[in-house]
Amino acid sequence: MRLIMAGLVVALPQTVWAEDLLQAQIRRVTLYPQGAEVTRQVQVPDGAVTVRVAGLPASLDLDRLRIAGEGVSLSGVRLVSGQGAGDSPVVQEARAKLAQMTEDLAQKEDAVALLRAKAEAALDRVVYLRGIGAAQATPEQALAIGDEVEARALAARQTALHAQAEARRAEAALAPDRRALQRAQDDLAQLLAKAENGQWLEATASGHGVLTLTSFADDAGWSPVYDMRLDRGAKRIDLTRLVSVHQSSGEDWHNVDLTLSTARPNDRMDPSELWPLLRSVGPDRPVLRTMGAEYAAAEVEAAPMRKADLLAPQMEGVSLVYHLSQKVDMRDGAEALRLKMDDLSLKAASWAEAVPSRDPTAYLVAEATNSGSEPILPGPVMLYADGRLVGQGALPLTMPGQTVTQGFGAIDGLVLTRKQTRQSGDRGVIARRNEQVETVRMTVENHTDQSWPLRVVDQVPYSEQDDLKISWNASPEVSQTDLDDKTGLLGWRFDLPAQASREITLTTRLEWPADQVLH
């Protein structure tokens, strides 16, 4: 029989208790980018009337707690804060461990004390031997007695020195045991603090079997972390995929079956909503240039935009699950734990990208297609080019079949210059049209010892008005217009040999009526 309890709270008798305090063991954890689902199991003995389950964190919310029973019928459940910390089996086990470690250390300290006592006894023997006299002896007997006393005193002193050295070494060997004992004391103190600050589950039950408790922890999560290595010679990008996991739930997760999910249970569940868009025409009216009018107009125009921006979904439609083959330990509040995922090897094209209007040098850029069967999730990345660390960045979400373009830093030996001249004037005996001619000369100089495939990027203005005529020409010819689907962006592609330079000339002509102003 399986019974699901969803946050049921009833009045339980205060004086009815099960004989044994039960301890729920964390078996499985599903970790989300923000939050975690924690699954515990506890064995309920036969004949229990009221069971107490210990060791639940203070952050556990009854409304988000789900209980399933196999062979157990429940008629009520509630949470009680901070009772009976010393009764917990985990605490009892920690106490027993601490007591055993204390006894073991005491026996070793007794052995050290025995060695020191042996050394003191040997030194006492030396003192005794020095007190032996030879007043009634003949000279020959006195010399013999002196020799015997000297030999025995030397032996006793040697015994004392050996015992002292052995005691010193034994004392030094106790350091790891004392550190382990201190850790055990700290662990017990933390368990007691967590138990006192934690919660207990009380439930009225009949039958015997297994209870499964599923709760949600907010202060936990995971995120992908990458190392991206570009090999220009092999035309390949190797992507090392790591996972950074963390939790501060108020309890340690020992030997748990861990699953990572890209689902976001804390995010909104519904898509964005569109509202009717009313447009109208009418006579031209002047715009009021007051601050209040501009502010009001901005409010009316921007309101739906802000709503869309604030509620923009992240990774909607992507829900992947990664299950770890080995069980893991995650300490409460400890530094993030790194887990490794499968690496990816992607075919890549690389080139030097030059934007003379913005940058003094060209940048190394690579592009690769996600040829895998799963998305590359967004996350921070450390960047390497030809075996050397060049910097860091952030990878976007890249679905299978999509391309990712990543920069790998400046190429200092590729120097860019851009010079611009502009001429303006009127056309016709009676000025009917205005004209502006702009000439740009761009130069790329290769001061490195290798040839570079180069893409030079610049732009020309564009017009959506019939009165504004724009024309342009370039030398050499442009390789691609509307680069990356951006109107007016131009791209030139060529190979630039070592120690060579290349000049590009771009002339743009604009014409518009004499009674209008260029904006």
Could you explain the architecture of this structure?
This is DUF4139 domain-containing protein. Keywords: Coiled coil. The chain is an alpha+beta fold and 519 residues long. Among the domains are: 98 residues; 176 residues, no CATH class. Helices cover 23% and strands 42% of the residues. The protein has four helices and 24 strands. The strands form two sheets. Strands 8, 9, 13, 14, 15, 16, 17, 18, 19, 20, 21, 22, 23 and 24 form a 14-stranded mixed sheet that branches. Strands 1, 2, 3, 4, 5, 6, 7, 10, 11 and 12 form a ten-stranded mixed sheet that branches. Strand 14 and strand 15 form a beta hairpin. Helix 1 packs antiparallel against helix 2 and helix 1 runs antiparallel to helix 3. It is flat, with a radius of gyration of 40 Å.
Question: Secondary-structure blueprint of this entry?
Answer:
Blueprint (H helix, E strand, L loop, with lengths): L1 E5 L15 E2 L1 E7 L4 E9 L5 E7 L9 E16 L7 H42 L8 H35 L1 H23 L1 E19 L2 E12 L4 E12 L5 E9 L29 H20 L10 E3 L4 E3 L6 E4 L3 E11 L6 E9 L9 E7 L2 E8 L7 E25 L5 E14 L5 E8 L9 E7 L4 E2 L7 E8 L4 E13 L6
Parallel strand pairs: 2-5, 3-10, 8-16, 14-20
Antiparallel strand pairs: 1-6, 3-4, 4-7, 5-7, 6-7, 8-9, 9-13, 9-14, 10-11, 10-12, 14-15, 15-18, 16-17, 18-19, 19-24, 20-23, 21-24, 22-23
